[in-house]
Design goal:
The structure holds 2 protein chains of 2 kinds.
Chain A (H helix, E strand, L loop, with lengths): L1 H37 L6 H18 L4 H23 L9 H23 L19 E4 L3 E4 H23 L1 H11 L1 H6 L4 H24 L8 H17 L5 H21 L5 H21 L30 H25 L2 H26 L7 H19 L3 H23 L4 H17 L21 E2 L2 E2 L3 H24 L1 H11 L1 H6 L4 H27 L4 H5 L1 H14 L4 H12 L1 H9 L5 H14 L6 H32 L1
Antiparallel strand pairs in A: 1-2, 3-4
Chain B lengths: L3 E10 L2 E11 L4 E5 L6 H9 L6 E6 L2 E2 L5 H7 L1 E3 L12 H13 L4 H5 L7 H13 L15 H14 L4 E5 L7 H18 L2 E6 L2 H7 L2 E6 L2 E7 H6 L1 H8 L8
Parallel strand pairs in B: 3-8, 3-9, 6-7, 7-8
Antiparallel strand pairs in B: 1-2, 1-4, 4-5, 9-10
The chains are: A mainly alpha, B alpha/beta.
Chain lengths: 666, 256
């Protein structure tokens, strides 16, 4: 009897999982297709799915247009149009960009696209509950074998998704265009040598995969997604990445199978976990991330498949090296003067004439600068990407919360312990993930961040259980009470200076040399006896420790944990893209990032230009797109221009001196 | 006891037997060539010696110590130096900084904690050691140039300099002539010979350019299809029937 029950449950789970799995599969093959044709891991697919789903909702539910018209506009026209436009104006130029640049640009789009959509259409002005499918009366259910219930929406979802996949395979197999596409997948350059326009084929691939993304978005609205907001669609893209990773990002059939597999796992796994435990209650939404993490860490061969390589890539121009010329040290020192003066000016203004609002804003800017130094260390020096910064910030914050609450410890001491704990967790996390290549590492840390967000935070020994109990006292040190906002601001400035000195010391010391060497060539580094794991762990731990310390200070400043508004995982993506687009390779870049992040939106956008907060994200996305042109960061780029100017002046001066000397001698 | 002793090395990729019963012995301070036509398995063997690949079978003893299971960087610390066929340099660092990296790695004096107390910058002694090697290879004029702006020939010299900083007992060179013209190759060989005689390390030169091997090495190993064919003094190997056969075929049609 029991056995039959178990089988029953299993069949039920498979039947429930298949429709969702087919949608995952659809987006996974689109994902693989664009990765293979253009080398870009498009994180923005989720955003594209959101745009189509929201358009469909607006047209069909709110304006009550017929289903087929709404579907044609949102999926048939809008979705591929976005894909083609993005390819034309953004992705096409990224083919030879560095992996960091590619990831930053798609991450920027992922944040910006929904916001731009909201600005343009004024979409979220009212609630967006109650999404519906693409057939009338979708909730009517039938029974398979008179036993297992399945709704009409699910049947349609499954059928349409399978049809989509079949069409793609037929296209590949039987048409000229498909043949060309297969060629481009193998090697765009080789295909061009055969007289085929690889750009056109690639553009078609983008249109098609974006259409699938849009279709997936609309289809999911009938079953698993009920609130149309960008976050839910981001999960979709994570599942797609996990499914595509099962096919190592190169095999379309495996990506398809991966989608089905994950869809079924998604329904089966929760039945085996006690639903009342904390893991059971919260695992559901984070399951995609857990699976992605597990696939990346445990699947053999992921490490080897670091980048998609075009056998003819040699004919492409080489990846842009960040433009660095050797300039006299004096020139770079002189070029620092304006920003130093400005910093001192702001500092004096805040101390003497700022009201409480601006004082707190600038204090947070200083604290965010400390957090952003974590990016300077790991990305600027190490050349790698971690998207789990928010988790480490939260670890610092929670440590302060627990220690001050349970042991009445000084919050400053607790912040230091939080930093140490963050570094330790970072080192532990580093062990499995750091052997992964660039993009995989970024994805694994992202998966970790979401898992932390969905599950870890809920444990009472980690985070506060409610808003009321989340209070944190300001520290006192000797006779100084930092409950006063002004003295707390001063404390933060001093801590920022200390942290900046630490990071500069790392940059100039062995750590900086070793990381630069590893970045340049891992095999050559090993050939002179450098242990890559050791230095990567050092970089990851140091960066995590800094983020934790900054996170701790942030919540001390706010006197409350505010997990949701401070440390949501997508915020980390925002931080990273912001700092990288400004200047990640230098300490001053982190500080400028802190100011831009905390002060710019309030000062410029809201106070001066009276724009909606969404503009912040939209502008940020545009900035990220621009990043592909200046991989050293916009601030560093403009600063380097002035450095070179000074350098020319100095060398001209030296030359004149030299000339007069030789004149005297002769 | 020879400096490097490798015996019965076997390596299979899928169904391809890339190495079969390969062996090599190198004495301290001697210059040995490893030659063979394209696809003979030279690079695979080379990578097995260095630890980039793990052989399926066989034993590798270096300086009296079995190194079979050591990772690349640990072998480097024992005294393996190497250069790369496609040069591998540290983009963004200057010529001298390449040597600083290697020197730091050798003396093991750098650590994260030392960096934190501002003790991480290269010391005068370290810089002097780097400058010595810079001068030895005639790179003095360009020591502060960024590596990205150098020619391939200079890049190869920087690779040698970087390898020398670790004070190798055996320097393995992977096709150093590839990408260089005849004159550059000669200049390169000359510089290398001079330094080798001054510093007395052993060299294993992996090449398919027979001319370079015959002028530069004292002994040579010929391999083909993953197997050792003959070995002996370089002139002997160069004159052998086996060499002619390996490179030109046995006259009964082309080789595969």
């Amino acid at each position: 009897m029991l056995a039959i029950g178990a089988v029953d449950e299993f069949v039920q789970a498979v039947i429930q999982g298949l429709p969702v799995g087919s949608v995952y599969a659809l987006i996974a093959i689109g994902f693989t297709l664009t990765y293979k044709t253009s080398g870009i891991l498009n994180l923005a697919f989720g955003a594209q799915a959101y745009v189509s789903a929201a358009t469909y909702f607006e047209l069909h539910v709110r304006r009550e247009w017929p289903i087929w018209v709404s579907l044609l506009i949102s999926v048939g026209i809008l979705a591929p149009l976005i894909g083609v436009l993005l390819n034309q104006f953004v992705f096409k130029n990224l083919r030879t960009a560095s992996p960091v640049a590619r990831l930053v640009v798609t991450a920027g789009l992922m944040v910006a696209l929904p916001e731009i959509f909201k600005i343009v259409t004024d979409f979220e002005r009212e609630s967006v509950f109650g999404a519906v499918g693409i057939v009338p009366d979708g909730k009517i259910f039938y029974r398979i074998f008179d036993r297992y219930p399945i709704t009409r929406d699910e049947i349609v979802q499954f059928t349409v998704a399978i049809l989509g996949a079949l069409i793609l395979f037929a296209l590949f197999r039987f048409t000229r265009l498909g043949l060309h596409m297969r060629g481009v997948v193998e090697s765009p350059r080789m295909t061009e040598l055969r007289g085929i326009d690889a750009e056109k084929v690639s553009s078609f691939a983008w249109g098609l995969s974006s259409l699938y993304a849009g279709l997936a978005g609309v289809l999911l609205c009938s079953t698993s997604i009920t609130t149309i907001e960008p976050g839910s669609f981001f999960q979709l893209v994570i599942v797609a990445i996990a499914a595509a990773a099962l096919g190592k990002l190169v095999s379309l059939p495996l990506a398809l199978a991966g989608g089905f597999f994950l869809g079924i796992m998604n329904t089966i796994l929760p039945t085996y976990i006690t639903p009342t435990s904390i893991i059971g209650q919260n695992l559901g939404p984070s399951l995609p991330f857990v699976m992605l993490f597990a696939i990346l860490v445990f699947m053999p061969g992921i490490k080897a498949s670091k980048e998609s390589r075009d056998p003819m890539a040699a004919v492409d121009p080489p990846t842009d090296t960040i433009s660095i010329a050797h300039v006299s040290p004096w020139a770079s020192r002189i070029a620092l003067i304006p920003s130093l003066l400005m910093g001192v000016g702001i500092f004096i203004w805040v101390l003497t004439s700022a009201d409480q609002f601006w004082m707190l804003l600038f204090t947070e800017a200083v604290i965010y600068s400390i957090i952003f130094l974590a990016i300077t260390v790991f990305t600027g020096m190490g050349g790698q990407i971690s998207l789990a910064l928010t988790s480490f910030g939260a670890i610092g914050a929670f440590t302060v919360f627990q220690l001050t609450k349970n042991f009445e410890m000084s919050s400053l001491l607790a912040a230091l312990i939080g930093a140490a704990l963050g570094a330790a967790v970072g080192a532990l996390l580093a062990l499995p993930v750091l052997r992964l290549g660039h993009i995989w590492l970024a994805l694994a840390t992202l998966a970790f961040a979401f898992f932390f967000d969905a599950v870890m935070v809920k444990f009472p020994w980690v985070g506060p259980t409610s808003m009321q109990t989340a209070e944190i006292p300001r520290p006192t040190l000797g006779g100084l009470d930092f409950g006063n906002d002004k003295s707390f601001f001063l404390l933060c400035v001093v801590l920022l200076i200390i942290c900046s000195l630490f990071v500069s010391a790392l940059k100039r010391g062995t750590t900086g040399y070793m990381l630069q060497a590893l970045r340049g060539s891992e095999v050559a580094s090993q050939s002179v006896g450098i242990n890559p794991t050791r230095w990567r762990i050092v970089a990851f731990a140091a960066s995590s420790g800094l983020a934790a310390f900054g996170g701790a200070l942030l919540v001390i400043g706010q006197e409350s944990v505010n997990y949701g508004s401070n440390f949501a995982p997508l915020t980390g993506l925002f931080w990273l893209v912001l700092v990288i687009t400004l200047a990640s390779r230098r300490v001053s870049g982190a500080i400028q990032g802190g100011v831009v992040f905390r002060v710019f939106p309030d000062l410029i956008l809201i106070r001066l230009l009276h724009l909606a907060p969404q503009w912040q994200f939209a502008l940020f996305g545009l900035g990220a797109i621009n990043f592909s042109k200046h991989p050293e960061g916009v601030l560093e780029y403009s600063e380097q221009k002035s450095v070179r100017r000074f350098d020319r002046l100095i060398s001209r001066f030296n030359a004149r001196k030299q000339a007069s000397k030789t004149e005297v001698q002769s | 006891m020879s400096l490097l002793h490798a015996a019965e090395i076997g390596k299979t990729f899928g169904s391809l037997r890339a190495l079969d019963e390969m062996f090599i012995d190198i004495e301290a301070g001697e210059r040995v060539g490893l030659i063979g036509p394209n696809g003979a398995g030279k690079t695979t063997f080379f990578n097995c010696l260095l630890g980039v690949l793990n052989p399926d079978s066989g034993v590798i003893v270096f300086d009296g110590k079995e190194v079979n299971n050591l990772p690349v960087y640990k072998r480097a610390r024992l005294g393996f130096g190497r250069t790369f066929q496609r040069i591998e340099l540290f983009s963004g660092l200057t010529v001298r900084e390449h040597l600083v990296v290697a020197e730091r790695s050798r003396n093991g004096r750098g650590s994260f904690l030392r960096d934190l107390i501002w003790q991480g910058s290269p010391s005068k002694v370290e810089l002097a050691a780097c400058d010595e090697v810079v001068e030895l290879l005639g790179l003095g004029d360009i020591r502060h140039e960024l590596i990205d702006s150098l020619s391939l020939g200079k890049g190869r010299l920087v690779e040698i300099a970087r390898a020398l900083m670790v004070q190798p007992k055996l320097l393995l060179l992977d096709e150093p002539s590839s990408g260089l013209d005849v004159q550059e190759t000669e200049a390169f060989a000359e510089a290398l010979l001079r330094i080798q005689q001054e510093r007395k390390f052993a060299i294993l030169l992996v090449e398919h350019d027979v001319d370079l091997v015959s002028s530069f090495t004292q002994r040579a190993y010929l391999m083909d299809l993953g197997r050792p064919i003959i070995n002996g003094s370089t002139p002997e190997v160069m004159k052998s029937e086996e060499l002619r056969r390996a490179y030109l075929g046995d006259g009964e049609g082309a080789q595969q």
